[in-house]
Amino acid sequence: MMPSQEVSRQNPSSQINTITKKIIKDGEMKIQVGDIKKAQEQINSILKNNKAYIQKEEFQNNDTEENIDLTIRVPHQNFDALVNSFSDGFGSVLAKNISSNDVTEEYTDVSIKLANKKIYLEKYRDMLKSAKTTKDILEIQENIRELEDEIDVSEGRLRFIDDRVNYSTLNLNLYKEKIRSSATSTIGFGSRFGDSVTEGWNSFVAFLLGIISLWPFFLLIPVVVFLWRKWRNRKKK
After folding, report:
1. Which residues form a coiled coil (predicted)?
2. What ranges do the domains of the chain cover?
């Protein structure tokens, strides 16, 4: 609710300098490697050369594969070089997705509204000094509180956009498939036994389904037997 004293509207766009283009670049890559530990050593070297760092790391290891999920942040000017380093000879690239998002319009819009809110805030503070009635004081204080909250949100949004623009994000997945063989596998007997039971059951089910699929022929067997016996009895007579 606005107090009885009117706050004159001003256009703060003239007070905002020309904003350079704001481009957010992100990427996702999945790479199959032969040795996870060796790949990690290569990653450390690539990150250092491109002034990048690992924001998040997750490792998974099961009977069939090893996986490392990395969230990498890199200065935007080094993003392409980082992607090329992983694409060229690092491993077998299974998937790759690179995107660019122009957020200049949003950044400009938030900046203009933020400047406008700061102008209103100063005017409300001046009005508070000259307010006479308790009602006006409380109303102005409430508007000041709301504006301060909105300003905090807008400034947080601009900081978030600046961070995403200045540092690009690459989600990198390293994948290694384990070799499963009775001679070379390091997987335990229990896992191999379970696999054998599963394979045997699947074979039995496939065999059973194959027999069931022949049910029309089974229906003909009694007919064939009946006709054969009838023919044989006639021949004897």
Report:
1. 121-164
2. 1-178, 189-236
